[in-house]
Amino acid sequence: MFDLLPKTVDIVEVGPRDGLQNEKTSLSAQDKIDFIDQLSLVGFKRIEAGSFVSPKWVPQMASSDQVMRAIKRFDGKRYSALTPNLKGFDLAMQVNTQEVAIFGAASESFSQKNTNCSIKESLERFAPVAEKAKKHNIPVRGYVSCVMGCPYEGDIQIKDVVWVSKALLDMGCYEISLGDTIGVGTPLKTKALIEACLQVIPSNQLAVHFHDTYGQALANILTAIQLGISVIDSSVAGLGGCPYAKGASGNVASEDVVYMLHNMGIDTGINLEQLIQVGKSISAKLNRNNGSKVGEAAP
C-alpha cells in the first residue's frame, strides 16, 4: 500500500474556526487576525477563518466579519467560512470570503441537537446557499458530522454517511469532508467508510477530518491516504472539539500530521518548525496545554 501514497497532501487548517469555537477562552478580533496571518506565513494554502452563525450559539465566532475584513490575503491561498444559511452567506460575501462551507450530519439525533432539524430538513436549508454560491462563483465545501459515531446514537450506519455525502455533492459542493466528530474511528472502520464513499464520490472530492479523542487520528489518516485521499483537515495545537459533542477532545494537531507526512516523504508545503512556534504561541494565549505531541516534544 505504501507505494500508492500521494507525493503531496493538502492540509486544511481549521484551527481559527473549528478549533477556536470550542475553546473556553475567547480571543479578540486582532488576536484572531494575527493567528490567521501567522498560519498563512507557515504555508497553509487553505484556512478556515471564521463562521457566520448566530453569536448566541457560538460566541467565539462573533467577530468573524472583522477578522475576514482585516486578514492579509496571500496569493494562492483561500480563506473560508462556515455559512449555514442565506443570512450567513450574505454576511460572508460582504467581507470577501473566498469559500463557504455547509454541514450536515449522518446522525438524526445530532442533527436535531446541532441544527434543530432533521437531516433532510438541514439539507433543504443548505440548498439555497449552494445555489446562491454557484451564482457568485463561490466554492462550497460540505462537511458531514458523526461519520464514525454519534454521542447520542452510538454507531452510525455507513449507508447514512454515504447518502448525506452524496446529497451534498449533488447540491454543488466541490469537496466533502468526512468528520469523525467524537473521535471514535479506528483504521478498519475508516477503510470501510472511505471505500463505501468512493463508490459514489471520486477520491479527489473527499477529505477527512479526525478528532483525536482516543488517539486514533494519525492511524486513520494513514489509512485514508493509502486509499487515495489527499486532503486532510487539522488544527494547530489540536485546538477545539465540538460544542455539541460532550467529551470530544480536539482535532488532530496539524503539527503531528505534518511531522508524520514529512517523514513519509509526502510534501505539504508547510514549514514545520514555524508551525510548532505558532502552536506554542496560540496555546499560551488560550491558557491551555498544547494538544500537539510534536509541539510538546520540540524545544
TrEMBL record:
Alphabetically, the GO molecular function entries are: hydroxymethylglutaryl-CoA lyase activity; metal ion binding
Q: Which GO terms describe its biological process?
A: ketone body biosynthetic process; L-leucine catabolic process
Using the record's annotation, list all stretches that form the Pyruvate carboxyltransferase domain: 9-276
CDD domains reported in the protein's UniProt record: DRE_TIM_HMGL
Please give the superkingdom of this protein's source: Bacteria
The pathway to which it is assigned is: Metabolic intermediate metabolism; (S)-3-hydroxy-3-methylglutaryl-CoA degradation; acetoacetate from (S)-3-hydroxy-3-methylglutaryl-CoA: step 1/1
Q: What is its EC number?
A: 4.1.3.4
Catalytic reaction(s) noted: (3S)-3-hydroxy-3-methylglutaryl-CoA = acetoacetate + acetyl-CoA
Q: Which InterPro entries match?
A: Aldolase_TIM, HMG_CoA_lyase_AS, HMGL, PYR_CT
Which keywords does UniProt give here?
A: Lyase, Metal-binding
Identify its protein family. Answer: Belongs to the HMG-CoA lyase family.
State the name under which the record lists this protein: hydroxymethylglutaryl-CoA lyase
Q: Which organism is it from?
A: Brumicola pallidula DSM 14239 = ACAM 615
Q: What is the lineage of its organism?
A: Bacteria, Pseudomonadati, Pseudomonadota, Gammaproteobacteria, Alteromonadales
> What gene is this protein translated from?
hmgL
